Every structure is written in C-alpha cells, then in structure tokens.
Amino acid sequence: AQTVTQSQPEMSVQEAETVTLSCTYDTSESNYYLFWYKQPPSRQMILVIRQEAYKQQNATENRFSVNFQKAAKSFSLKISDSQLGDTAMYFCAFNTDKLIFGTGTRLQVFP
Amino acid sequence: DSGVTQTPKHLITATGQRVTLRCSPRSGDLSVYWYQQSLDQGLQFLIQYYNGEERAKGNILERFSAQQFPDLHSELNLSSLELGDSALYFCASSLPGSRYNEQFFGPGTRLTVL
What we know:
By secondary structure, chain A is mainly beta. Chain A contains no helices and twelve strands. The radius of gyration of chain A is 13 Å and the shape is globular. Chain B has strands at 5-7, 10-13, 19-24, 31-37, 43-50, 53-57, 64-68, 74-78, 87-94, 104-105, 109-113. In chain B, strands 2, 4, 5, 6, 9, 10 and 11 form a seven-stranded mixed beta sheet that branches. In chain B, strands 1-3-8-7 form a four-stranded antiparallel beta sheet, with no helix packed on it.
C-alpha cells in the first residue's frame, strides 16, 4: 500500500526564521510525483511545491524548498524567512494516478 | 483562483437526506477527482472520472455516487446522510499527461449534516 506519513502534527516558528516540515512515504513505484499543499484558514488547497521522483535536484519555489531523499523515501519542506501568512496546515502528497495525502502539519508563525 | 468551481459553498441538511455537489473543472482538464476532508483530517480520495468514465475508486461509500457529464462537469451524490458525513468535499481537476499530473483544487463544499 502507498502511504504518506507526516510525523509532526504541529509546529511553530518565529517570523523570519526557518522551519522544516517532515514527510516520509512508502511506495514500490519508480516514477511518481511529490507535492506539498498549503491549506490556510480559508480551507483552500494551494500547491506550494512539486518534485519529480526521477529528478535528483531538489525543487525550489522562492522561500520554499524541499529536501528529497529518494532512497530514504523522504520529502521534507523547508520554509525560509517565515511570514505570518505561512500559518496554515501543510499536507505532503504523493501522486501516481491519484493523490495520497499525509495527515498534515499545522504550522503557526509567531510575530 | 485555480479555475475549478464548486457549488454550493455550504450545505446544511438533515440525516437521511440526499444532496448533490457540483464541480466544474478547469478549461481543458479531462479528469475530475473527489476528496473528502473530515474535521482536522487529511484528504481522503473518493473517486476519479476521466472524460466521462470512472477511472479509479478510493474510499467511497456505497451511499455515495458520482458521474461526469459530456461537458465534463461532475456531480457527487450523497444519500442516506449520516452525521459522520459532515465534511469538506473537494473537487480537483487535472490534464492527464501534463508534466506533473498535478491536480488543481476547487474551493470545496462544506456539508453539515444535523
């Protein structure tokens, strides 16, 4: 079975600091995609960053970057220079033909 | 704005009733996915349609059904509603064959069963 595990239910960080959210997954597939979605209080699902499994290079989108370790099946999200607007639930997701989500990490950014 | 629309935004109904949730995918997207998010939970995949045909099924109850119409909009029908069906229901769409096969989410329909 394909599973996604987010072991940190809640995290907090001070504004302008850096925080890393963890995600591990399990699959026997060789080609797949990994995503981080953000869900702010509005409950809208917003794509933050994406990674192709066959690409060794870690994806980066402005202040967001990932540390993708394929052998370890790990896909962590680093948020640099945290902002108050980053406060949200963050979901890691794994995609072959459908998205499988982790249970989420609630991130609180404090001033 | 993802380009995916869902109606209604909110729905309040009673146990035993039946409701229909509607989704219009992004222009050009052929696949529609339905997800259920219960309170403080992750998203559970329910079902996928591709160009009118059912493509994949997840944890969808027998009381739930869906379809995709020729104009590619989709409807999720929930019947014999129970209190535990209260949740946020998301629709997402994608264009299979796109580079990441990424899914774009609508704003969701919040269903409350009293």
